Structures are given as structure tokens and as C-alpha cells.
């Protein structure tokens, strides 16, 4: 009799439902972070391999020191892959999306290899670990906070569009003060976006109506979002913490 009453207790049913959703969200986020970590490992390994081998990295430049055709392809191809992955979300299978994501991470490694020509290896590694620590703190905050970050996410996205426009304008102006302001804002924006994206992914992961294939697709897209947050935060931090050669 007691078991029957306990089974029908609405509080217990609510707690059971919450526990189930929480477990699903954790499983989903585990996949997201696994995909992200794999992509970052590929990017880091390729960047280090090319960036520390002058024979390899010289393949991206011509005799005058400017970028050759391969260098421009390596620089701009990642943008194309992001657009392709986003546009193909509904049409491509999760296997194809994952393959494109891993190829994208390889191309990003080639693109980022040039930072070894500008900054010392020790400052690059130091900045990477600081970025990783910052990412971990903000990810935990985004997962555990009870505050709805949706409105902050909207503000951060508008601010991101603003610094992209400002960065393009500053390419032609070459204003050092504007570059500093953009760098500071970039660090703040991507630090906030990490918490926002993790909270958003936690909510997505709690949705039990998704099938296995759609869940994998969403996990890959979530990994791409967090990957971009991490890489951009790293690059903005490198402007402050990186020791130039």
C-alpha cells in the first residue's frame, strides 16, 4: 500500500522526471564535449606540426613572404566549411556532418599554424592552458546556474556582430587603440558565450523527443559552437598574453 501511494506521489514523479532529464542532458553534453575535444586535438596537433616545421609552413607562402594560393585556401576554407555544415544540417547524415567537422578542424589547424611565426611557443602554450581553464570555469557556470542566460546571449550575439564589423573597419584604419578595445570586448564576449552556449545545450539535451540521429546532429552542431567559442577566446587572449618574436 505504501509503495502504491509513493508511486502516485506527484513530488516523487516530478523528481524522477527531473532526474531522467538531467541524465539525458549529461549524456548529450558528454557527446558534445567529446566531439569538441577531438576537434581541438586535431587542430592543436596540426597547428603545432606545421607551425614548428619551416619546410611545411613555407608551403603557405611565396618567395616574397606573402601568402600563395594554398595559403589563401587554408585561410578561407574553414569559413566555407562552417557555412556548409550549417546549411547541410537537415540534409546531411550525422556521419557526414562529423566528417566535415573533423576536416574543418584540420583546416583550422593549418590556418592557426601561422601564430607560431608571430608568437613564442611558450606563450602560445601558456595562453592555451589559460583559455582552457577559463572555458572550464564558464562551462561549469553555464551548466549549474539557475539564471536564464537567454537575454544575455542575445546581447552577446549583437556585440559579436559589432566587433566583427569594427574589426573589418580597423583593417583599413589600422588604429591601435581600436584594436585594443576590440580585443578586450572579444575576450569578454566569448567568455560569456561559453556559459550561454553550455546552458542552451543543456536545455537541448533535456529534450526527449529527439531521435538518435537528430541527437547526434545536434551534438555535433553544439560541439562546433563551443569549438568556435574556445578558438576565438584563445586568439583574443593571445593578443594580450602572447610574447611576439
UniProtKB/TrEMBL annotation:
Pfam families: Bax1-I (PF01027). Its main location: membrane. This is Bax inhibitor-1/YccA family protein. Belongs to the BI1 family. The chain crosses the membrane at residues 32-50, 70-89, 96-118, 124-143, 155-174, 180-198, 218-241. InterPro entries: Bax_inhibitor_1-related (IPR006214). Keywords: Membrane, Transmembrane, Transmembrane helix. GO terms for cellular component: plasma membrane. It is found in: Membrane. It is a multi-pass membrane protein. It comes from Vicingus serpentipes.
Amino acid at each position: 500500500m505504501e509503495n502504491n501511494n509513493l508511486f502516485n506521489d506527484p513530488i516523487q514523479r516530478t523528481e524522477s522526471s527531473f532526474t531522467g532529464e538531467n541524465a539525458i542532458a549529461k549524456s548529450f553534453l558528454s557527446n558534445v564535449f567529446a566531439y569538441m575535444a577531438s576537434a581541438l586535438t586535431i587542430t592543436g596537433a596540426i597547428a603545432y606540426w606545421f607551425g614548428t616545421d619551416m619546410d611545411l609552413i613555407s608551403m603557405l607562402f611565396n618567395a616574397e613572404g606573402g601568402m600563395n594560393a594554398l595559403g589563401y585556401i587554408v585561410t578561407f576554407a574553414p569559413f566555407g566549411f562552417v557555412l556548409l555544415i550549417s546549411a547541410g544540417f537537415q540534409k546531411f547524415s550525422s556521419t557526414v556532418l562529423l566528417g566535415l567537422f573533423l576536416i574543418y578542424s584540420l583546416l583550422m589547424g593549418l590556418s592557426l599554424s601561422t601564430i607560431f611565426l608571430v608568437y613564442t611557443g611558450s606563450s602560445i602554450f601558456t595562453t592555451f592552458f589559460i583559455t582552457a581553464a577559463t572555458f572550464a570555469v564558464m562551462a561549469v557556470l553555464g551548466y549549474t546556474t539557475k539564471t536564464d542566460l537567454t537575454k544575455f546571449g542575445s546581447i552577446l550575439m549583437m556585440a559579436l556582430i559589432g566587433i566583427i564589423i569594427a574589426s573589418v573597419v580597423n583593417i583599413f584604419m589600422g588604429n591601435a587603440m581600436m584594436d585594443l578595445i576590440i580585443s578586450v570586448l572579444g575576450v569578454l564576449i566569448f567568455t560569456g558565450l561559453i556559459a550561454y552556449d553550455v546552458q542552451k545545450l543543456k536545455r537541448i539535451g533535456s529534450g526527449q523527443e529527439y531521435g538518435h540521429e537528430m541527437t547526434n546532429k545536434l551534438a555535433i552542431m553544439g560541439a562546433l559552437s563551443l569549438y568556435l567559442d574556445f578558438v576565438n577566446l584563445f586568439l583574443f587572449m593571445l593578443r594580450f598574453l602572447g610574447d611576439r618574436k
